[in-house]
Amino acid sequence: MTRSKLTNLLDQLLGAGWRQTDRLLTLTTPAGPDALLAESVRIDEALGPLTGHAGFRIELTALSANADQSLSELLGQPARLDLQTAASRTALRPFHGHITQISREGANGGFARYRLIIEPWLAFLGHNQDNYFFQDKTVVEIVDELLADWAGQGKLVP
């Protein structure tokens, strides 16, 4: 057995070679394609106003081989969760959003468990504490003015 085959085999046995390919959930973040492995998810999605939500909210538990993952670097960053549905084994259902909350839930056996909340970029407007008064403006003009400060924030792919 060659050294590279032995190394690959050891990586797979020790968990260093884990991949998200062929999984029901695939998580993509700026940390890298296989840095966080989606373990479980709860997705709330609806049209119209949701109490405490901006269209959808994804509560995700993810595992990482890196227990020292920098949480502050991921907060506010774009993320994509691809879900393989029962309707299709080849096409994935993508959810594009931003990480609005992240916390370390613990570690076990060399793996760390993280809890992430992924929401559309409009969720950031819920944290805005500015006050505005609008007079003699249409609804379209008001929305344009409010969202102008957030131009370019809604990129879809990390």
- Give a quick account of the main beta sheet: strands, pairing sense, barrel closure: 6 strands, antiparallel
User: What is the CATH first-level class name of the domain at 19-121?
Assistant: Mainly Beta
Amount of beta strand: 25-35%
Please count the helical segments. 3
- CATH architectural designation of the domain at 19-121: Roll
Low-pLDDT segments, ≥5 res: none
- Biggest sheet strand order reads 1-4-5-6-3-2
The chain-level structural class is alpha+beta
**How helical, in percent, are the residues?**
10-25%
Morphology: elongated
N-end to C-end Cα span: 39 Å
Radius of gyration, CA atoms, in whole angstroms = 19 Å
SSE pattern, N- to C-terminal: HEEEHEEEH
Question: What is the CATH topology of the domain at 19-121?
Answer: Pnp Oxidase, Chain A
SS elements, strand count? 6
